[in-house]
Structures are given as C-alpha cells and as structure tokens.
Amino acid sequence: MKHSIIVTLLLFISLSNAQEKKESFSFSLDQAIEYGLKNNYAAINAGKDIESAKQKKWETTAAGLPQINAGLDYSKNFVFTQQGISGNAFNPGGDPNAVSTIAFGTKNSMNARASLSQLIFDGSYIVALQASKTYLQYFQNAKTKTDNDIREMVTNYYGNVLLAEENISILEKNKATLEKNLFEAKETYKNGLIEEETVEQIQITLASINSSLNNASRLVDISNKMLKITLGLDIDDELILTEKLDDLTIKNVDLTTTNQSFNVNGNVDYQIAENFKEQRRLEYKTQKASYLPSLAANVNFGYNAFSNNFSFLNQNQQWNNFSNLGVSLNVPIFSSFGKRAKTQQAKIAFEQAQTQLTEAEQMLKLQYDSAKSNYEYSIEQYVTSKSNLKLAERIENKQQIKFKEGLSTSFEFTEAQRQLYSAQQNYLQSMIDVINKKTTLDKLNNQ
C-alpha cells in the first residue's frame, strides 16, 4: 500500500512538471510572423552568422595593425656542444694539421624578449579589407533572405492550419446533415416508400465524409505542429490562431499590388548574386595586387642573461639588453607565369559571375511576371469558386426538398451532394491559394 502511494505521488509530480513546462500562445498572422523572425531556428543562426562575419571583418582589419608579441626563453646545457678548431689556432708553434675542440657557453641562459611589427604596405591587404565588407554584406543579405523565407513559411503554415480547421467545420456540418438524411431515409424505407438502394447511397456518402473528417483531424494536428516548429515553439505548447481564413483571404485580395513595377535591384536574390559578383571581382583584384611589392617593419628588444648556476632571480644577476629595427621589402619578380595563370583564373571567374548576375536578373523578372499572373488567377478562382459554392448550395437544397417529396431520385440527390462537397473544397483551396500566391509575390518584392 505504501509503495503504491509513493508511485502515485511520483506520477503526480511528473505530470505537474510537464504541465508547468507547457506554455500557451495566441497569435494573429502578423504576430506569428514577428515572433517567428525572432525565434525561428534558422533566423537565430542567421543572426549569429552576421555576428561571426563582423568578427571576421575585424580579424582581417587587425592583420594590418600593430602586432606586439613577447616571450621568455630558458636553456640549460647538460653537455656543451663542442666546436672543432685547428691545432695551431691558439698555439702558433703547434701542428697545423692537428684538430682540437673547445666548448662555448654557460650552463644556464635566459632570454626575455618583445617585438613590435607593423605592415606598412601590401596591396593584397587593402583588397582584403574591401572583401571583408563584402563578406559581411553577404551574410546580411542571407539574413534578409532567411527572414523572407520565414515570412512565407509562417504564412503558409498559418493558412494551412486555418484551412484544416475550416475543412473540419464544413465536414462536421455535412456529416450532421447526412446523419439526419440517413435517419429519415431509413424511416421512409421501413414504410416501404423508397428502395433500400437509396439508404445505401446515403451510407456510402456518409462513410466517405467520416473518412475525410478523420483525415482532416490528423492534418490539423500536423499543420499545427509544423507551424510551431517554424515559430520556434515546442510542439507540445498550446497555439491559438486568432484570425479566420475568410478574413485573411480578404486582406490578401489586393490587385493594386500587381500594378506596381518590379524593382529587381530590391530583390534579395539579386543582391546576393550581385554580392557574389563583387566577391569574384575582389578576388581578381587580389591576384593583380600580388604583383605589387610589400613593405613591413619590426622592432625587437629584450634582455638576456647567462649563468652556470640558476641565479636569474637574484638581484645581482647581470642582464644584458639588446634591441634592433628591421625593415622587410618583398618585390615579386618572376614566378614562371604562375601568378599570371592565377590572375587569369580569377578574371574568368569574375566574368562568369557577371553572366550569372545577368541571368539572375532575367529569371527574377520572369518569376515576378509568373507570380503576378498566378496571383491574379487565384483571385479570379476565389471569386468564381465563391459564386459556384452558393449555386451548389441552392442546387443541393432544392434536390433535398425534391428527394423528400419523392420528386427526385437518390442518384440525383447524391450527385447534388457530391457537387456541393466539391464546391466546398474548391472554395477552401481558392482561399489558401490567394494567401500563398500573394505571399510569393510579396517575397519577390522583399516585403
């Protein structure tokens, strides 16, 4: 008994903790987009890429600024290195062919040093500074592209959730109507006024509706989780969408958008292609700069000390200072045309990037024309499907009345129902198409 009480308490605590971790969120579409731009996983990493690029830019800049290094070297000689000398080097009367050895140095030595170096001129460094700005701009453009993708994904998934929820609502209404029709048909069949086939036709239609309803319930759960992941939420969090599919569709019906001229220079994909071209140009410029001489200078200073005993920490230890100035000039003269080959490769790559930029410009213009056409068509389909739905509802209602009065066959009634269900689905799809096509058009305009 005691054991079961403990287990129950542990389960209760575990469930309580799980409930505490679960959060609830309520978003309109604009609020969802704003939240996703800050918390989407890709958006977070894109922001970190920019910070990393800024550090890379400073790394490049620092390479041409003063560099200071210091060090401490200690050496202990266990056995001295012997140096060979001629036999009469210190003894003029000795045998000149004889060889003797002598050792130089002390048992211990220490060297404390510091150096200051400065790049004075290097053409490649100047180009590298320009390239670092382009490098940063690339990641800023990539962040903009990521944000545009997130806006599109959030809008699409938000619309998909609303679509699935609206579909469930319609299917439940259809199911309720069919269940009522089936009940009435069974009662009429018992009285011998209709054939059994009529009841079976309604049962088939009801079974199809039940299947569609179950599938729609699964889809709304999946769509909801996909939206949560896109927003950067935990999939177990509660998410409430405050907008309706009808309202969202009406907000996106705006034909004035298609009257605007397309500015390809404002498109982020074009900007990235232009950024790529600039990188290739600077690489070409770097190779040309390698023909220029480079000049650098350094200053070294320090102290050294020698002792047969480790006495470097004693106050009376003698330290000897040293200092020097060095200037280095490097002038490229001949590389067996290796540099020329690299320069030509960079030039070809730059020309290819120019061609790719032109291609990107033409493709983006085509994409815009296509997106504008698709958006206009989606609005036309929305208006048409809305009108067709009203007609299908009137036809189905008339057929239902005729069927109950025995003036219409079960086949005609079932066909009217199917026509209504098809019109309902077309209407739902037309609404989501308007939202998605408008989002695609806005994305091309960097909106």
Structure overview:
The chain is of the alpha+beta class and 447 residues long. The chain has 2 domains: 21-64 and 122-292 and 335-444, Up-down Bundle (Outer membrane efflux proteins (OEP)); 67-120 and 295-331. Helices cover 64% and strands 15% of the residues. The protein is built from 9 helices and 8 strands. The protein has helices at 2-21, 29-39, 41-62, 123-190, 196-231, 245-251, 268-289, 338-404, 410-444, and strands spanning 24-27, 67-76, 82-86, 99-103, 108-121, 238-241, 294-307, 320-330. The strands form 3 sheets. Strands 2-5-7-8 form a 4-stranded antiparallel beta sheet. It is elongated, with a radius of gyration of 41 Å. The mean pLDDT is 89.
Q: Portion of residues in helices? A: 55-70%
> What is the helix tally?
9
Strand content: 5-15%
Could you describe the largest sheet, including whether it forms a barrel?
4 strands, antiparallel
Instruction: Tell me the quaternary state.
Output: single chain
Label the CATH architecture of the largest domain: Up-down Bundle
Strand order of the largest sheet: 2-5-7-8
- Mean pLDDT metric: 89
The radius of gyration over CA amounts to 41 Å
Q: Quick one: how many beta strands?
A: 8
Would you identify the regions where 5 or more consecutive residues have pLDDT less than 50?
Answer: none
Shape: elongated
Q: Could you say how many structural domains there are in total?
A: 2
Along the chain, the helix and strand elements come as: HEHHEEEEHHEHHEEHH
